[in-house]
């Protein structure tokens, strides 16, 4: 039998943004509910070494960090629900989310932290060598390739920005693009072409990622998109930079989004175009996409949700007194 769960703060998504919102919301007495979704803990649960999250002098493991965040959220009063939301209703006095088992979750406020997933090429060796030389985040993992040879796959803004960033760590960066011209902004292209540490392989498509004897990435097998000629480029690290897909399908036609599907928020805030509904983390951030920025946005969402409820309750009291 379906159950209805009510809370003052409903949070969909359990990555750094959602759990940070839960910690702040629980400390404010909002008794938040976090619906964890298909990937509890978010992308950090599939990230091994984390070296850039503040507060840890040594490398930590992504799954461990998320376990600690969840434990902290539960310790201060958060309820964690193992469920996947299949539909939402943002039109009433409370916001409703329906789980795939039929349970109903009602919140006086709603924090959306469903995240985004990196787009992958879907070729052999890619997932097998993920974390062993293959990555989708240069900002996250570039530090591990100091002084090594790296490649970036893609031709848009993300790929060019990743290639430029990697020159902070490597003097040998190759951008691999399947076309003969880039799809990025002109200023980024000019910076790329002017950088002596970067070379470009045009009209090349990655056919597979090749592992070495130690089960780590050794090379990329390529095919020329014009001549079909096969080739191989040896590398220590490969960064797939063909974009991200935000998990916002639930909110289509319910909340404002940009052309790529990221939720739109008021500048400098987590506020969506529906009062009482907030977005935090990669679901609305296509620029930074870091655990620490997601956590910060989760904090902002909880603080704004608390203020929203206080103002709503004050308005209700005022209206009653005046009436």
UniProtKB/TrEMBL annotation:
Per its UniProt entry, which superkingdom is the organism in? Answer: Bacteria
Give the catalysed reaction(s), semicolon-separated. Answer: [thioredoxin]-dithiol + NADP(+) = [thioredoxin]-disulfide + NADPH + H(+)
How does this protein assemble? Homodimer.
User: What EC number(s) are associated with this protein in UniProt?
Assistant: 1.8.1.9
Q: What's its top-level EC category?
A: oxidoreductase
Looking at the UniProt entry, the stretches that span the membrane are: none
Tell me the lineage of the source organism.
Bacteria, Pseudomonadati, Pseudomonadota, Alphaproteobacteria, Sphingomonadales
According to its UniProt record, which protein family does this protein belong to? Belongs to the class-II pyridine nucleotide-disulfide oxidoreductase family.
Sorted alphabetically, the keyword list is:
Disulfide bond, FAD, Flavoprotein, NADP, Oxidoreductase, Redox-active center
SUPFAM superfamilies listed in its UniProt record: FAD/NAD(P)-binding domain
Q: What is this protein called?
A: Thioredoxin reductase
Species of the source = Novosphingobium indicum
Q: Per its UniProt record, what InterPro entries does this chain match?
A: FAD/NAD-bd_sf, FAD/NAD-binding_dom, Ferredoxin-NADP_redctase_2, Pyr_nucl-diS_OxRdtase_2_AS, Thioredox_Rdtase
Record's NCBIfam families? TRX_reduct
Q: Aminoacyl-tRNA synthetase: present as a keyword of the record?
A: no
The record places domain FAD/NAD(P)-binding at 8-298
Q: How is the cofactor bound?
A: Binds 1 FAD per subunit.
As cofactor, the record names: FAD
Q: Specify one Pfam family.
A: Pyr_redox_2
């Amino acid at each position: 039998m379906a159950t209805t769960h009510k809370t003052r703060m409903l949070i969909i998504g359990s990555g750094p943004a959602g759990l940070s919102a839960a910690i702040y919301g629980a400390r404010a007495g909002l008794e938040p509910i976090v619906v964890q979704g298909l990937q509890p803990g978010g992308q950090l649960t599939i990230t091994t070494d984390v070296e850039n999250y503040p507060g840890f002098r040594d490398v930590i493991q992504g799954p461990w960090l998320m376990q600690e965040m969840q434990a902290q959220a539960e310790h201060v009063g958060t309820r964690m629900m193992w469920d996947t939301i299949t539909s939402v209703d943002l039109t009433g006095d409370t916001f409703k989310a329906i789980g795939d088992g039929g349970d109903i979750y009602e919140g006086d406020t709603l924090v959306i932290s469903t995240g985004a997933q990196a787009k992958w090429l879907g070729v052999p060796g890619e997932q097998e060598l993920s974390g062993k030389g293959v990555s989708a985040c240069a900002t996250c993992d570039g530090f591990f390739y100091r002084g090594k040879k790296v490649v970036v796959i893609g031709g848009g803004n993300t790929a060019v920005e990743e290639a430029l960033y990697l020159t902070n760590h490597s003097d040998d960066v190759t951008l691999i693009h399947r076309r003969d011209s880039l799809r990025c902004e002109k200023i980024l292209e000019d910076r790329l072409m002017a950088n002596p540490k970067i070379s470009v392989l045009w009209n090349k498509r990655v056919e597979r990622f090749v592992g070495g004897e130690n089960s780590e990435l050794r090379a990329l097998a390529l095919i020329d998109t014009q001549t079909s000629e096969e080739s191989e480029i040896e590398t220590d690290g490969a960064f797939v930079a063909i974009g991200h897909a935000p998990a916002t399908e639930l909110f289509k036609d319910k909340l404002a989004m940009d052309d790529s599907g990221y939720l739109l928020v008021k500048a400098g805030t987590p506020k969506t175009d529906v009062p009482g509904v907030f977005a935090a983390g990669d679901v609305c951030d296509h620029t930074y996409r870091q655990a620490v920025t997601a956590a910060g946005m989760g904090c902002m969402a909880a603080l704004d949700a608390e203020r929203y409820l206080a103002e709503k309750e004050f308005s209700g009291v005022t209206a009653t007194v005046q009436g």
